[in-house]
Amino acid sequence: MRILAIETSCDETAGAIIEIAGTETKLLTNVVASQIDVHSKYGGVIPDLAARMHTEALPVVLKEATQDKKITYQAVAVTIGPGLVGSLLIGIAAAKTIAMVKKIPFYAINHLEGHIYSAFLAEEKPELPTLAVIVSGGHTELVLMKRHLHYQLLGQSRDDAAGEAFDKVARLLDLGYPGGPAISELAIHGKEDEYSFPIGLREKDSLEFSFSGLKASVAYTVVKLPKPLAEHTKADLAACFQKTVTDTILRKVATALKKNPEIKSVCLVGGVSANLHLRKNLEEMINEDFKGLSFFVPDLQYCTDNAAMIASAAAHHYLFGQPNRWYDTEADPGLTLN
Ligand code: KG4
Ligand code: ZN
């Protein structure tokens, strides 16, 4: 059994094929066409442009993902939300057409569950219950998954997502879009104790996040500094900002683990999980303070948006759930996990 997965929720056009044998899954192909070079000229994603570029890129991506139709598949899966509506519609239209013409099962996938299942692409799988720490450009969520495809939201951001904070602070420092990779590069050369920024909602028991105060605090600091900012000043700001985001996430994860002692593993997923500082520090905290728990983070290529993660989620829908009726399925830009 093979599933073709399509992801077009934002500014990556992606296709992948996964094979399922028994309960084993194996990724066969994974193709991502990024639009970042185009959007970065404008300092962020331009929705209309993204949708138009998906229509151009998707046929090429699907040709490559199926190795020019040499790899056949028996089901199709697509991201139906959350995301940009114009972008989602392109992938959904393609997937519906494929399901209708080929008369094969159709799987509607939530982009966030795709991120969660990116942690299940490696050979070693997270044991359940797992705590999924979703840190992306649009979302920051702590999700408890006790059984496959069942998601319990423990806490989320009240304002900016972690990735959004990286992107906004990068803009303050003139680092371009997307901000995450630029800030993490620069932070390598910076001092982590030069500036002190606040951890949002730091009350002991809170599992909610807030990053807008942190962003504002960086902005106030920047306003007071002489311009143009020196390179070493930018590096210090980047390092202190990155440390504060990491400390915030570690603190909330520790609280969630203490409140839910049944958790057996932690999965760090979403675009910001590509951040090496965060990966390293969260892993260290879990190994030191939560012995017996295992830590999972996807390969770097599966952190930011891709279709391999959608394929992985679809494989688990095939194993533990049901297909969806393509004619009843709509794009849902504000889709949540439960
Ligand atoms: O998951 P993703 O590709 O898209 C959404 O679902 O939102 O995440 C994109 C986000 C962007 O905000 C980007 O700045 C951030 O992930 N990001 C990073 C890194 N690489 C990407 N943030 C911090 N460090 C990184 N290395
Ligand atoms: Zn994403």
Q: What do these coordinates show?
A:
This protein has helices spanning 36-39, 47-65, 85-102, 111-118, 162-172, 179-187, 212-224, 231-259, 276-289, 308-320; strands at residues 2-7, 12-21, 24-34, 75-81, 106-110, 130-135, 140-145, 152-156, 265-269, 294-296. The two termini are 28 Å apart. Helix 2 (47-65) packs parallel to helix 3 (85-102), helix 4 packs across helix 10 and helix 8 (231-259) runs parallel beside helix 9 (276-289). By secondary structure, it is α/β, with parallel strands linked by helices. Helix content is 41%, strand content 19%. The protein has 10 helices and 10 strands. Bound molecules: 5'-O-[(R)-(carboxyoxy)(hydroxy)phosphoryl]adenosine (KG4) and zinc ion. Residues 10, 136-138, 163, 166-167, 178-181, 184, 270-272, 274-275, 304-305 line the site of 5'-O-[(R)-(carboxyoxy)(hydroxy)phosphoryl]adenosine (KG4). Zinc ion is lined by residues 111, 115, 136, 270-271, 305.
